[in-house]
Amino acid sequence: MKKFAELEDFASAExxxxxxxxxxxxxxxxxxxxxxxxxxxxxxxxxxxxxxxxNVGGHGVVGRLREGDGxxxxxxxxxxxxxxxxxxxxxxxxxxxxxIMHACGHDGHTTMLLGAxxxxxxxxxxxxxLNLIFQPAEEVGPNGGAKAMIAxxxxxxxxxxxxxxxxNHPGAPAGxxxxxxxPLMAAADTVNITLHGKGGHAARPHLCIDPIVxxxxxxxxxxxxxxxxxxxxxxxVVTVGTFNGxxxxxxxxxxxxxxxxxxxxxxxxxxxxxxxIYMIVETQAESWGATVDIEYDxxxxxxxxxxxxxxxxxxxxxxxxxxxxxxxCALIPGSEDFSHYLDHKPGCFIRLGNGEDSAxxxxxxxxxxxxxxxxxxxxxxxxxxxxxS
Length: 389
Ligand code: ZN
Hints:
single chain, alpha+beta, Aminopeptidase, 15 strands
């Protein structure tokens, strides 16, 4: 039997991965503007012998490599975009683009997949088709890069049997691979509510319908959605993020508005909460004589890890880092656009420790942990080799 990739196989590649990671970090690009990053990635893939397709769903890049006569096919995805945040780290490779930084570690994700790409092209210890997906615009909500690549025919043009992706995970030790079967990250829906009352003089409330009072009772009633309606063994979040209304102390406003963020981990709870929000908001408003407009926007779906692909990825991770070294990841109430791929293909989204002392994602002093690079690259290489063995 041929030997599959080990952590040690990436020791010699670490210096080059560091150079790539620091280059990407110093030159971050915002969502939908990843032109130079995509060109950099394409150049590397071509140099290593990949068949490269550019501009898939915007600046998306797919590198394909076929080897042997195996008919299995795997896709692995990394994201490439940065955020509109001003970096405050004083590292020598800090962002050179004012107001833009890799504050979510997508520079690290891209580098690890490139590290695996170089190894797999050099060693060619697999039989089948490898599709490496470099995705733009992960950070912009539901109408971002994953959906754009899928709409541009990703799975028809580059068919795959399963898809894998990963995200760094602040709080867990660098290089620790965390797995969870089933739901991992939340669906994130947004609700905009506009209440129409009847404005007037603050001294004569009996002649008005005060939308601020109506809105207040709605805010309180919404607190019962999770506490009273969701199964106590499930979990969800309903947050009223904004509540705006009124212009002066002596005026009762004509209207007020609320906006909500809803996080759920199952389609059933997601549907239940939507029903409860409509019911509560409409009936509360009606009871006060107010009218209401509700705009319910579905965000990213749930990141749902397929049991079979997750068991496989867990096996590969355990072979790499040792028995008992792959903890179960707790549910993450954040969302991620990898979920759109998982709506089409079975697969698994993996988390990789970014250090216990890591700054939080999307903060100005965050940095991807370079100590995770070899683990991430080795994971992708071995996962591809094993899947296509
Ligand atoms: Zn991210």
